[in-house]
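User: Last request for today: this protein with S-adenosylmethionine, please.
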Amino acid sequence: MNQRSLDESNAIIVEAWNTVLYDKFCRFRHLLIDGLSQHSDAAFERCKYQEGARVLDVGCGFGDSTRRIAKQVGPDGEAVGVDCAENFIRDAETGARRDGIPNARFVVGDAQWGDLHGPYDHAFARFGTMFFEMPGAAMRNVRKALKPGGTFTQIVWRRREDNPWLHEAELRVKEIVPVVSHEETDQVHCGPGPFSMSGPDMVSTMLRVAGFERITFERYDCDICIGRDMADAIEFAMALGPAGEIIRLAGEEGARRRPQVVEALQEALTPYERPDGIWAPSSTWFITATAT
Ligand SMILES: C[S@@+](CC[C@H](N)C(=O)[O-])C[C@H]1O[C@@H](n2cnc3c(N)ncnc32)[C@H](O)[C@@H]1O
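Assistant: Here's the final one, the structure of the complex with S-adenosylmethionine:
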């Protein structure tokens, strides 16, 4: 890809996060933040940042993890959340003001090549590194923002087969809705997708080339709530993840086939129904790496 088409393609991804995906994240915030924070709760138990540390939160979204890190490092430390989407950053700033956390700061920027305002003692990312057009460039940029010996902890989805809440929905939807690739549409899209960092060999090579060492992968599995009830879970599956992207990119055709999709998703999600909502298995890698 030449520089011009790379810039255009990246601009499309940034626009998607700032518009259609931001709106969907707001709509399903109750699932995305509460459900997915189970993974970061477990990661934070393992990496306790010391008081006074400066920590970068890559692709910080609503900034709840940034605020949590800011509390951990205390008033002498700082947590800086970086996100390419202005709307997420505005929301994150409002959250920090509301909670009275002055040492959580937020910056609009592209993690692949923007100024990340280093140097940092540590970097962290919860599901914030899977959607880059140029992940290798992002890893290098994060490494440059770290002090030598600084750590980078990333939480990313493991393989799709161990995340049936996303994968089964995708398979069902693919049987019903025609798949339109990113290249065939002029609509904005999310970028490479949630499983782009699921392969340890590829990711560890990328981190090594970017200047990291002591790269480790820890598998973490837990059930997450993907709907307060069946209707919520079906709407969530139809809005986000690979299934949601297939429906959205199919445009009118996706809308027309909605009744069949609802029926298929109901069937796929029924095994996960519990009295307190819809709970499905999920699986992540906690990747840690040290900057050389
Ligand atoms: C799946 S969301 C995760 C958000 C947050 N970390 C969380 O766990 O709720 C991915 C985030 O990465 C951001 N993002 C995508 N590409 C980016 C880029 N090139 N530079 C910075 N942020 C990016 C998106 O705007 C979005 O907020």
